[in-house]
Write a structure and sequence with these properties.
It is a single chain. This protein is 9% helix and 40% strand. The protein is mainly beta. Strands 2, 4, 5, 7, 8 and 9 form a six-stranded mixed beta sheet that branches. Strands 10, 11, 14, 15, 16 and 17 form a six-stranded antiparallel beta sheet that branches. Strands 20, 21, 24, 25, 26 and 27 form a six-stranded antiparallel beta sheet that branches. The chain is elongated and about 120 Å long.
Length: 506
């Protein structure tokens, strides 16, 4: 400090340039002094008391709900370097009490560190996998800190040993699967339905989707031996779960009495479950099965119904039905008893009936709808799950447009004839408008109430039979357009099964 005062005194006797130079030297000198002081303070310890260790908790029962929280903290004092100005490095040792630190976990923490923290998850992992402590067993541990003085020949320090109790927990499964007749994949354990883990609380799992009538429970893996751990219903409380290790214990399952859309949430720590039925259809998919249908009795290759885009309760299917029987499956697996069915309410039910019954697996009456030689043909089947009705209607085709015989009258369009499963129109085109247009509807009513057969391109030639399906008022509204000289008599033949159309001038 005297040197710095002398520099200030000399500055008053110098020229301006000299003063600037000396001030520059002063600033550099002061900076170096402070830097040296800060550096020394980080790693050099002056004479002090012996190192002392403290532990934040003397008895700690770990809980997975605090998995990511810091629950155990070790703090220690700086200790002494015995006035040698030497730096000190610190080492923390932890071991079971009475082991004389023979199996200790050692943490080499370096210089200037006076604390070591442990989260619940990290500490629990050590207890289970390093010291092999049984979950739920309170075990006494001890810890000490060593202070290693850098200078040779100077005694190192070691703190007094601190003892404390730790009790580990058994972590719950990181995966969970739902299995059972009520679950989407039934009793196929290898294909059991996975539950989604909560990212913030990974011991909470949930499922949202379709459930069938039946029972279910939860497995921790998909091993085919059925010897894995299961969570089943507490016999005394349907809102509680029982953990059955290795498949042991009472196999009480939860029951779904009404199929539909559900949200199921389980908490593996509190062993609780909530099962809530949501607003939505009872089934998410339907399939036609039977020798009256194009796919026959061939499960799992049955043809699917289409879900209405605006109403998930409504399913439709269109095809040519031949003499035979059919019923409707709510699942696509090849296991005939692995799900629920929509059966006819009576044996050999006529196609005009509008009701159905729901059966489960291979139980209940296996009634079917019956197609005869007289009633065979192309039909549209509409199932309304909210009203629990089925409507089986013959498919018709109508020619609509000012190029046709009945104009743009959608309420009373010109019907085509059905001949051997083909739709046929024979008559005049362009009688009222030689350059008119036309397309084909599958219905009568309002313009957006049903499906259309429209031309593949706009203003398409009447001799080109290419077409595509338009649903309601969505998509291109292309039409066939008569050109000068096209008016006359035509035969139009449409095969909906083969998706072909021929237009021949007579």
């Amino acid at each position: 400090m005297n040197t710095i005062r002398n520099i200030f005194k000399e500055c008053g006797k110098q020229s301006v340039a000299g003063k600037i130079m000396r001030m520059f030297i002063l600033v550099v000198t002061v900076a170096l002094v402070f830097a040296a002081c800060q550096k020394d303070e980080e790693i050099v310890v002056s004479e002090g008391e012996d190192i002392a260790l403290s532990v934040s908790d003397s008895a700690l029962a770990l809980s997975q709900k605090q998995a990511f929280e810091t629950v155990l903290i070790f703090n220690w004092s700086r200790g002494t370097n015995h006035s040698t100005s030497s730096s000190i490095s610190y080492t923390l040792e932890i071991d079971t009490e009475g082991s004389d630190f023979a199996t200790s976990q050692i943490y080499d923490l370096g210089k200037g560190v006076y604390e070591k923290n442990f989260t619940t998850e990290a500490l629990n992992d050590l207890l289970l996998n390093y010291w092999n402590i049984e979950p739920g067993t309170a075990t006494s541990f001890e810890a000490r800190v060593k202070a290693d003085v850098t200078k040779e020949g100077v005694d190192d320090g070691v703190s007094e040993t601190k003892t404390f109790l730790l009790t580990p927990y058994k972590p719950v499964s990181e995966e969970l699967f739902m299995v059972g007749g009520a679950s989407p994949n039934g009793w196929d354990i290898s294909g059991a339905t996975p539950m989604a883990a909560n990212s913030a609380s990974p011991w909470i799992f949930s499922y949202e989707g379709q459930m069938k009538v039946g029972t279910f429970k939860f497995a921790v893996n998909t091993d085919g031996c059925w010897c894995q751990d299961f969570y089943t219903q507490d016999p005394a409380d349907a809102g509680k779960m029982v953990y059955n290790e290795g498949g042991s214990g009472d196999d009480v399952q939860w029951e779904i009495t009404e199929g539909g859309n559900y949200k199921i949430t389980v908490d593996l720590l509190s062993l609780t479950i909530t099962v809530n039925k949501l607003v939505g259809p009872e089934f998410s998919e339907l399939y036609i099965v039977g020798d009256a249908s194009p796919s026959g009795w061939n499960m799992p290759s049955s043809e699917a119904f289409t879900v209405d885009a605006g109403n998930p309760f409504i399913f439709t299917y269109e095809a040519t039905l031949t003499p035979g029987d059919f019923k409707i499956a709510t699942f696509s697996s090849g296991d005939w008893c692995g799900g629920q069915w929509l059966n006819a309410s009576q044996p050999d039910q006529v196609l005009t009936a509008t009701d159905y019954i729901v059966t489960t697996g291979c139980d209940g009456p296996d009634n079917k709808w019956h197609v005869t030689e007289e009633t065979q043909g192309r039909y549209k089947i509409t199932v309304n799950l909210s009203k629990k009705t089925v409507k089986i209607e013959p498919v018709m085709l109508y020619i609509v447009g000012d190029g046709g015989p009945n104009g743009w009258n959608i309420n009373n369009p010109e019907p085509m004839s059905v001949v051997d499963g083909l739709y046929v129109f024979e008559g005049a085109l362009g009688a009222d408008n030689p350059t008119g247009e036309f397309k084909f509807s599958k219905y009568q009513g309002d313009w957006c109430d049903g499906d259309w057969l429209v031309a593949a391109t706009a203003n398409q030639s009447v001799t080109d039979g290419s077409y595509k399906i338009r649903y309601g008022c969505e998509g291109d509204d292309n039409k066939w357009k008569l050109q000068d000289g096209d008016a006359g008599n035509y035969k139009i033949t449409i095969d909906l099964d083969q998706e072909t159309m021929t237009i021949v001038k007579q």
